[in-house]
Amino acid sequence: MSIYAIDTSPESGTAQRAVPFRRILLPIDGSQLSRNAFGVGLELAKTFGAIAVVMHVVPPYNTMAYVSEFLAAAELGYSQHAVESASRYLSEAKSKAKEAGVACECHYMFGEHPHEAILNAVTEHHCDLVVMATHGWHGVNRLLLGSETQKVLAGCPVPVLVCR
């Protein structure tokens, strides 16, 4: 595990040191918790002069084979609504990044398992830090719903900052 202490005083010569983070992945899901984590990640990106790589994972519409014709129209409606929501979340993130003076890339993708999409994005977008929220589920909810954050922590090749 690496711990970074950054002295940003003028005497420190920080500008001449290697920057620990150049591309920070910020997964968002539209929840207040993910918005809070996004804010933390945006501040880190600003501090380090890093690029914010913002992503939203859209869960696919699952249908059962024997009712697929009936649900085809519903799936199309779901997909359109999901893409509109993703675009809205990412547009809001891009605006906040612009206000903060942080370079920003935005991506959305369909994925049944958000942790897999996040781990793939780390590699695909050459990110060296992930800043994400945890919903803090406990007990039966955690058992049934799982923890995407825990799965990212377990499989991520770069540091992960978890925010509540």
Automatic annotation (TrEMBL):
Cross-referenced InterPro entries: Rossmann-like_a/b/a_fold, Universal_stress_UspA, UspA
Naturally occurring in which organism (per UniProt): Dyella flagellata
Sequence ranges assigned to domain UspA in this UniProt record: 21-164
Family: Belongs to the universal stress protein A family.
Top-level lineage group: Bacteria
Cross-referenced PANTHER family: STRESS RESPONSE PROTEIN NHAX, UNIVERSAL STRESS PROTEIN HP_0031
Entries under Pfam families matching the protein: Usp
Record CDD domains: USP-like
Name the UniProt record assigns to this protein: Universal stress protein
